[in-house]
Amino acid sequence: MDYRASAQRDAIALLYAAQRHAGTFGGADLLAAAQSAWRLANENGWAIIAADSSGERIVGTATTIGECSTVDTSRRQDGLDVLVIAGMIAGPYGLMETAARSRFMGAKTVHCFYVSGWSGDIPGCDTVHRLITESIWEDESLSQPATAHETQVAASFT
Question: Is 50 exceeded by the pLDDT of residue 19?
């Protein structure tokens, strides 16, 4: 089997799954992601910012859970520790772009949290956190284990 053709099929399948997930992300999966992101941000004193439309839903839901510092994208972020949040990602570019923008605006540290998908490096993030929940992946053939630099954040329902 041609490795390049197989890799392309896998990338297209992951992109399709990410797009499908972004359009239907909600309910228990959204609540689990928001609770995990909220807890991670509050335990570490990080302000939260979205990197994509699912990230916006996660941030919005997280702000209803309890006190949560959010990033005002129209202002400088001097000295802030930031958590960039995304849904299912097919690649690192959205997180990288948001992380780079936060650093340019003065953020002291930039961390990222995403629901699922990509399992490679995410340059520009000090730490990477990926939510692991069984209900998010419908197609287990696309599920990939976290790489060594990632922290797997277990979903919890409280």
Answer: yes
